[in-house]
Amino acid sequence: MSEQSRRKFIKHLGSTAALLGVGPLAALAKDRETMELLQPNAHVSSNDKIRLACIGMGIMGFGDVNCALKIPGVELVAAADLYDGHLTRVKEVYGKQVFTTRDYREILHRKDIDAVIIATPDFWHDTMAIDAMNAGKAVYCEKPMVQQIEEGHQVIATQQRTKAIFQVGSQRVSSIVLAEARKKYLAGEIGQLNIVEARMDRHSALGAWQYSIPPDASPKTVDFDTYLKDTTKMPYDPKRFFRWRNYRAYGTGIPGDLFVHLISGLHYITGSLGPERVYATGNLVQWKDGRDVPDVVVAIFDYPATSTHPAFQMTLRVNFADGGGGGEVTRLIGTEGVMELGGNEFKIKKHKLPQAPGYGGWDTFNTFPEAIQQQFVKEYQRQYGTAAEATELSTSGYTAPVGYDDRLEHFHNFFESVRTGKPVVEDATFGLRAAGPALLSNESYFSKQLIHWDPVAMKIV
Predict the structure, then answer these.
(1) Is residue 107 in some structural domain?
(2) What whole-number distance in Å separates Cα of residue 175 and Cα of residue 268?
(3) Cα–Cα distance measured from residue 284 to residue 25, given in angstroms and rounded to the nearest whole number
(4) Would you state the pLDDT for residue 460?
(5) Together in a domain, 189 and 158
(6) CA–CA distance from 389 to each of 8, 64, 335, 380, 403 (Å)?
């Protein structure tokens, strides 16, 4: 807060106090604000070459590969996709030497590939991840880890059996910002957590998944029959291929795309295993383009008390019809402060209650007879003496350097695990505990029921 803003605030507070008839012992707020620049983690360069392949060369595929190739020693050698244009683009961007195929199994059969990125539509994640781990590959699987709960247990079992390196692609858990937020939370900076609220709103066609469809898309250039996997067979439909997030059969809607980011971050900060009750509601408001998932979803999650956190309630909201233009914020609200996270920074705002409650203002004191007021003041002074009556306001901010990329940090962690065998930062169990509540949001929305969840066993009760 600037000095000019602070003077305006005090002046406004003073005039408000006069308006309300605040007594002589009424408190003024004290405001302090600081900002700290966080330092990125140091990474040791390695000469060990990692030969990488990517399955699914859409938006996330190209984005992940571009990020992964910034890591020293990582080389892209192969890519798989069911649209020929994506494979042509791979060679244009990364070189003609990159092996491309429609059949992802050809990649898994190659002995010269160390790791694979799985960046396909959600309903393919489990099958490809399991096949890749069985083939001895390290796996970086985009979020949500799976489309169905039971698939998650199969991925966990495969990881445990094969001992494969498997990391889910919710990059926030590798962020230096969330690492600092976790330290502050565990240090009790916001007191006892009681409410978490987060929103991630948008208002654009691309933000609402109306992705561009290439003019050469056809049954000849797209292997639509293979794409459908075990879902209902139907004639070629480019929208279902290129805008797959709009359909329950292939994606996981708003919860799987966006809730899972917020849940992953919360679980990392608090050490939570998940909620015990989930209820979701919403509507299809603006994007009535044939999709069968809502564009507005609000979900409530009840988290039970554990050894790492008290019982609290979380509310998540995503609105693709936000006429204000959208925005994102996550707030962890405690009894002594609030942690607000957004982008590559967070702030802790503390509103510390005074030792003495004060009197006057919006209070019953002014309704007492004069003699009773005098008696009240004497008793008040005897009880509280010179105890502070000013409410303390303070804000501490923490920000990553300009240009900091938590996805790059996430890939650093993944490839370090590939090279050294150290545990990944987000394994299959963490992945299901993050995906589970998101998938339950869909279950609740479509069934119109409260869903009970066992966060330890990761099963619907």
Answers:
(1) yes
(2) 10
(3) 53
(4) 98
(5) no
(6) 21, 54, 18, 12, 43
**Among 134, 155, 172, where does a domain finish?**
172
Phi, psi of 126 (to 5 degrees): -65, -45
- How much of the chain exceeds pLDDT 70, in percent? 92
Residues in a beta bridge with 340: 331, 347
Domain assignment present for residue 8? The answer is no
Helix H, strand E, coil C: the string for 246-269 is HCCCCCCHHHHHHHHHHHHHHHHH
Tokens of 238: 């480019």
Among the candidates 127, 156, 172, a domain finishes at 172
How far, in Å, CA of 399 to CA of 51, rounded? 34
Give yes or no for a contact between 424 and 410, defined as CB atoms under 8 angstroms apart: no
Instruction: Tell me: pLDDT of 349 over 60.
Output: yes
Helix axes 176-186, 406-420, angle to 10 degrees: 90
Considering only CA atoms, which of 362, 363, 353 is closest in space to residue 388?
A: 353
In tens, the pLDDT along 159-194 reads 999 999 999 999 999 999 999 999 999 999 999 999
* pLDDT above 50 for 453: yes
Average pLDDT of 406-431? 97
CA angle 125, 130, 135 (to 5 degrees): 125
* Per-residue CA distances from 115 to 49, 133, 223, 314, 424 (Å): 11, 10, 25, 36, 14
- The rounded radius of gyration (Å) of the Cα atoms in the chain is 27
pLDDT, tens digit, 9 for 90 and up, residues 238-256: 999 999 999 999 999 999 9
Same domain for 190 and 310? yes
Q: What are phi and psi of 151, to 5 degrees?
A: -60, -35
In this structure, the answer to whether residues 147 and 263 fall within a common structural domain is no
Q: What is the mean pLDDT of the chain?
A: 92
DSSP code, position 298:
E
CA–CA separation, 249 and 239 (whole Å): 13
- Assess whether 363 and 414 both reside in one domain: no
pLDDT confidence band for 6 (50 / 70 / 90): very low
